[in-house]
Design goal:
Largest sheet of chain B: none
Oligomer: heterodimer
Mean pLDDT of chain A: 93
Distance between the termini of chain B: 70 Å
Shape of chain A: globular
Structural class of chain B: mainly alpha
Number of helices of chain A: 5
Number of strands of chain B: 2
Mean pLDDT of chain B: 52
Strand content of chain A: 25-35%
Number of strands of chain A: 15
Largest interface: A-B, 49 and 18 residues
Largest sheet of chain A: 8 strands, antiparallel
Number of helices of chain B: 3
Distance between the termini of chain A: 21 Å
Chain lengths: 256, 63
């Protein structure tokens, strides 16, 4: 089944960005909204920028922008989901210092010696925020893909959003359908930037209710070895794992 | 009106509402009906993922 959809793509943050909307007349507006959002997000959390908001925070209470507060809230949720595997700190006096960070509205309190680094979750968070905000403002279905992180919101197209899951060309592939509100993320150990030949898994893909959760779960699981299966099962998240011998394991309702 | 009389007057109303399947809606401001598995409108949550088909909207690969 097909339906009217329109898409556009560009490169940003070192990845391929792709936007799909269910209302072709809304594509230009969606693209502008998302490009603007990503520019603002970069100014908020990119530690390489001297003027980034993330570099302006000090020990103790800080007033931050709503966007930054949301990024940090997502990062702390990812840290809790992964039991600290995705740590939102660049430097900290103790491994669990992130647990002492608090967000109350737009007030962020940092413990002494903690510097934030939201790189691990900012892209997936941005996909979530862009999809939900754009769908709400434009009143249509929206899919936002930033690299392998895919978020959806608004009206679900007939048959659902169609997502192909494949790491490298030649790897096992499959296609899944997800409703709006669901998200997909894939973590890899074989991409050139992050090769890890001793890992049990080549690729782990996860579907969750947010891209932040899907990304955090897949990233944590891909480095876990055999324990990833029980860990993902306990999270009750649909997942697909591909090992170094190209064998595929599916969990939690992921279609086999 | 005493508390007993008030309740006795309300009971027939509640019976009628219960027969219509909306007693929980009234009693719990809507939340009870949504959480009650016996409510006829209760449905099993749609699966988060199913087999796909057709032209993909996007590709999820590792990065």
């Amino acid at each position: 089944m097909t339906s009217a959809r329109s898409a556009t793509e560009w490169s940003t943050w070192g990845v391929h960005a792709r936007i799909v909307v269910t209302d072709p007349d809304a594509l230009s507006s969606a693209s502008n909204l998302i490009r603007g959002y990503l520019a603002a997000a970069d100014a908020a959390v990119n530690r390489d920028r001297a003027d980034a908001e993330i570099r302006s925070l000090d020990e103790g209470p800080n007033t931050v922008t709503p966007m930054f507060a949301r990024f940090l809230t997502d990062a702390l949720a990812a840290a809790r989901t992964t039991e600290g595997a995705l740590d939102p700190t660049a430097s900290a006096p103790a491994p669990q210092s992130w647990r002492s960070i608090t967000v109350d509205g737009t007030e962020v309190t940092l413990p002494a010696g903690v510097e934030l680094d939201l790189t691990a979750t900012a892209r997936a968070s941005s996909a979530d925020h862009c999809a939900s905000t754009t769908a709400e403002l434009l009143g249509c279905g929206v899919l936002v893909a930033l690299g392998g992180d895919i978020a959806t919101a608004g009206t679900t197209p007939p048959g659902g959003w169609q997502v192909q899951v494949q790491d490298l060309p030649g790897d096992p592939t499959c296609q899944v359908s997800i409703p709006s509100g669901a998200a997909v993320a894939t973590a890899s150990t074989v991409k050139p930037l992050h090769p890890d030949s001793i890992s049990l898994w080549r690729t782990v893909s996860v579907v969750a209710g947010s891209c932040t959760t899907a990304h955090a779960s897949s990233t944590a699981a891909v480095g876990m070895g055999g324990g990833a299966i029980d860990w993902l099962t306990n999270l009750e998240l649909p997942a697909r794992l591909v090992d170094q011998e190209f064998r595929v394991t599916t969990l939690g309702g992921w279609p086999s | 009106m005493s508390e007993d009389r008030r309740i006795s007057r309300l009971l027939p109303v509640r019976r009628v509402l219960a027969a219509a399947g909306i007693a929980g809606l009234v009693a719990g401001g809507g939340m009870a009906a949504a959480a009650d598995p016996a409510t006829p409108d209760s449905t099993v949550a749609a699966p988060l993922v199913s087999a796909g088909f057709g032209t993909p909207d996007a590709v999820s690969s590792g990065s």
